[in-house]
Amino acid sequence: MNIDSVTSNSIGRRRLAAFSAVIVFSLLPAVAAQPVRLVLPAKHGPLMDRAAAIFTRRVNQRCGAQAAGANPFTIELRVDPTVGAEGFTISGGARGTVHVTGGDERGVLYGLGKLFRTSRCDSGKFSPGSWRGTSRPVASLRGVYLASHFGNFYEAAPIEELETYVEDLALWGVNAVGFAFPAGQYTSYEDPAARSNLKRILAMMQTSRRAGMQVGAFVAPNQTFKTAPKELYAQRYPDDWGRRGYLGINLCPSLPAGRKYLLEAWSGLLEEYRSVGLDFAVYWPYDEGGCGCPRCWPWGSRGYVQICRDFTRLARSKNPHFKSVVSTWMFDTPPAGEWDGLTKVLAEDKNWADYIMADAHEDFPRYPLDRGVPGGLPLVNFPEISMWGMSPWGGYGASPLPAHLQHLWNQVAGRISGGFPYSEGIYEDLNKAICSQFYWDPRRTALDTVREYAASEFSPDVAEDVVRTVGILEANHRRRRGRFEAPPHQTVEAYELLRKADQRLTPQARRAWRWRILYLRALIDDELRRMEGKPRGPVLKDAFAELVRIYHAEHVHTNRVAPPEIVP
Ligand SMILES: [Zn+2]
């Protein structure tokens, strides 16, 4: 069955009927060259259709519409549970059919992702690369958290772009995605601004679910609407070290009316998400949330525990498979007995908690590593891949951090069951890929993923030059408000490497946003050095304007998520 001249989106809507022994899935009109032809088993589920559509879209992007001879490359998809959950095997010859066998349909999708990244396209002809073998994920919860606020990419981009982006992440093996609804910005669920945000979140949730992901909510359980009665407000908590923050509208759950208000709001959010259904929530203690009243404090082992337990009970009454992830963000900073207290509470009853999340602004918290994870639960992390050491975030183009992420990963490798990198935008796409591969295989290095990413998104011919450039960019990473924290080095070399690489790319790779943000970062760093750190002149003006277009940052609410202003 050939599908002529349709977009990947319309394929998603068009369920392929299983009426023959095999179903052949290919794109582009029959008269034009087709880079690949996918053969699906007669009986398969919607995720395999989706996997085929996502893979085909990416291959066609990479290969372009050039003539490639009459014979498309054939790839056969199938499921064999003996491969293992979410795992895949790629087998077959370079000249003959390649087989992608998933342990389940998610495994087929992740196998197609691996095949895509290790293949290449020359003059429109697809070559499947030489990677063969079986691979299974080590961590089970391989998530991302997409923060949509401030007018950042997730809040501002057209929904189709967001959907495409989420699908691209699925190819890296990402199987969970979390979103937050910023209730404190709104009067109620009926607030028009709230409706607009919920509509976008729901669209992204639906796309994520179609791409085999679990969907969830990041929620500070005592945080709510700005119209909440002031007499129910939480009390400030100790923050002697200035790490816990105090954001949003927080209520005290130890007040019966406060608890009632919060549970009704949670019930309302579950209702808003009813069409998708929440697979999980990640509960958040601080900088959003918290109460320091005598009945709630220490928050992390008393008030927080009570309200999280209530939330889990309510969510499970709607979905018995609902999972709760209990974040310990900024526990015991300064010490308040929160880790010990949570350990004690969970030793008595851990029915309401499924995972413990831990992480910090810098090094990983010692408690779960040295003393054990409360309740003996699986541990997940929350790597900060977006804001570290640079502001505005993404304001200078791509911000790859392989060495930094490797340093953090080495503290937890082999001890965690997954995590949720915190994302403010697409400028750290490479960091998401690095984390996804840490979760998949804890022994895989960040640099190895950079190499695979560069070969796949740009060209195998420039991969080593990109690896070298990324090292230079990371060494010059740290800056505040347009100023390098230390004099930048080797910016001429980095820019020169990418200028030469640019000439070796196909037109479609050269135009793609992933290349442009990396290229612009090298250009901007070198130009900023020439301008002695001041964002001025026509070169920077044009470069920043292009970043604004890529991020859809024309209407940002703050200067945190857009390039710096040009100065006279
Ligand atoms: Zn309280």
The largest β sheet comes out as: 9 strands, parallel
The small molecules bound here are: zinc ion
Share in β-strands: 5-15%
Percent of residues in helices comes to: 25-40%
Low-confidence stretches: 1-21, 27-31
Number of β-strand runs: 21
Find the structural class using helix and strand composition. Answer: alpha/beta
Number of helices: 18
Distance between the termini: 60 Å
Rg result? 24 Å
Instruction: State the shape.
Output: globular
Q: How would you state the average pLDDT, rounded? A: 91
Description of the structure:
The chain is an alpha/beta fold and about 575 residues long. The protein is about 40% helix and about 15% strand. The chain contains 18 helices and 21 strands. The strands form five sheets. Strands 9, 10, 11, 14, 15, 16, 17, 18 and 19 form a nine-stranded parallel β-sheet that branches. It has a six-stranded mixed β-sheet with strand order 1-2-3-5-4-8, covered by helices on one side. The chain has a two-stranded antiparallel ribbon with strand order 6-7. A hairpin with a 2-residue loop joins strand 6 and strand 7. Helix 13 packs across helix 14. The longest helix is centred in the middle third of the chain and has 19 residues. It is globular. The relative contact order is 0.08. Bound molecules: zinc ion. Zinc ion binds next to loops.
Write the layout of secondary structure elements.
Blueprint: H1 8-13, E1 22-25, E2 36-41, H2 46-63, E3 73-79, E4 88-92, E5 98-102, H3 105-117, E6 120-122, E7 125-127, E8 133-135, E9 141-146, H4 153-156, H5 159-170, E10 176-179, H6 192-210, E11 214-219, E12 223-224, E13 249-250, H7 256-272, E14 280-283, H8 303-318, E15 323-327, H9 338-348, E16 355-357, H10 366-370, E17 379-380, H11 402-410, E18 418-419, E19 422-423, H12 429-440, H13 446-457, H14 463-475, E20 479-480, E21 483-484, H15 491-504, H16 507-511, H17 513-530, H18 538-551
Parallel strand pairs: 2-3, 3-5, 9-10, 9-18, 9-19, 10-11, 11-14, 14-15, 15-16, 16-17
Antiparallel strand pairs: 1-2, 4-5, 4-8, 6-7, 12-13, 20-21
Helix pairs in contact: 2-3, 5-6, 7-8, 12-13, 13-14, 14-15, 15-17, 17-18
